[in-house]
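ESCALATION

Customer reports they have been waiting on this structure for their group meeting. Please prioritize. Original submission:
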Amino acid sequence: FCAAVLIALCGQTSFAEEAVQNEKAHDWSGPYIGLQGTFGKVTGSDYSNNVVISYGSDTSYSRDDSTVGVYLGYRKQIAKTVLGIEVSRYNGNQDRETINGTVFYGNTYTTNQVALSVGRAFDTLLISASAGKNYSDLTMDGDPFGLGTLGYTSTAVSVNLDKALQNKMLIGASYNLINIPRTAWGSNSSTSTEGINRSVSIRVGYQF
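Update from on-call: job pushed to the front of the queue and completed.
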């Protein structure tokens, strides 16, 4: 009788341990959607007829940048490696500022992004890096100089940290670096701009 009880208890213990392990394990494979908010700073230079424009002692600008957007992606986990593809769309705003008496009007823009990622899973934690292309249209607030729309394609890279919750919700954060190539404003080909956007994103999503 004692032996039978001992065997039963051992079986229950093994089952409990296996249940705990299964509860902790997370499969990152599958589609997911979410919302994200970003805050950062964009720095760069403006050019007129290929000559950098000086604003007093400064030859560059720096302004705060923020965005809100949505994303949709798919991941495939192979052992501990997680591969992914993601598309996103977000609306951004760059604040107005004044440098040495020169007014920089704020900008609004829309960006569509396609990115590939590779990462390593630690059960419910995923660390990854991603790289992709951004397709953006930017307009100066009110278009006071009649420059029209600045349309450009940029390269984006990110380092990401994601956490899976028990209710299939996802939370995460990313550090992003976007390289904006020198691009002419739509209706004024003699005026162009270039820059680098550095930002941090907070993400909330759901995995199906």
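Sent to customer with the following note: Helices lie at 2-24.
Escalation resolved.
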